Amino acid sequence: MKKIIVNSYEELSELTANIVVSTMLQDKQVNLSLTAGSTPKRMYELLLEKMSHLGELTNIHYYTFDETPIRNQEGQVVGFDNFDGLKQSFFEPAKIAESQIVAMQDDNYSNFPELISAAGGLDLMVIGMGDDGHFCANMPECTQFDKAVYRVKLTNDFPWNAPYQEGLKGNYSDYMYTLGLPSLLKVQRVILIVKGASKAAAVKRALTGPLDQNFPASYLRLLPNLTVILDQEAAQQL
């Protein structure tokens, strides 16, 4: 594990964007898996600016690493939590062609690791971490560390599920699927980005605490291919 502590969220975003761009510029097909959420927001703004000077990057292919279908009260799928976030923050502004995106969905999630392997494997994955220790959709109480990919039924037994459902504004999710730790072990380079004082305790627990299945991010430090990028506030308890 390589740990990089920078002064600010801006520096974190700039460094991560530069790593993504340098990976993109390889003279081959490049396979990336990027994260949605609030932490990478500034990274995407910088990345879009940098990509605007690089011309068409048709050699880049994008793979999502987890998904949670969103349903309305009639049970119809009306969105996809991860893909919709990536579409809004990056795919659409960057004008990424649909042919360059492979999204994890109901009809392909079970063989998603094989799809990635057939394409040459992932060159880079950028992930975040929740203050509850989740990464991708490897969540407390339901992580399956022996599975390369798996599906989880969302139930009221998971304490984090109720707040998540409340945030869906009248819609709901009844399951999610995600790449697991064995899949991350095969990625050439995994970048974990964490910002803010609110994540400081979680960072300390993930990077220095005991391995704990109820705090999945604690297992990330087993990855030989992991780089952790933190701003000063997120690193303050280390």
UniProtKB/TrEMBL annotation:
> Can you tell which superkingdom this protein's organism belongs to?
Bacteria
Asked if the keyword rRNA-binding belongs to this entry, the reply reads no
Task: List where the protein spans the membrane.
Answer: none
List each copy of the Glucosamine/galactosamine-6-phosphate isomerase domain by range.
Answer: 11-221
Q: Which Gene3D superfamilies match?
A: 3.40.50.1360
Enzyme Commission number(s) from the entry: 3.1.1.31
- Which terms are listed as keywords in the entry? Hydrolase
Name the SUPFAM superfamilies on file.
Answer: NagB/RpiA/CoA transferase-like (SSF100950)
PROSITE patterns referenced in this protein's UniProt entry, alphabetically: GLC_GALNAC_ISOMERASE
Q: Which Pfam families match?
A: Glucosamine_iso (PF01182)
Any idea which GO molecular function terms this record carries? 6-phosphogluconolactonase activity
Q: Which protein is depicted?
A: 6-phosphogluconolactonase
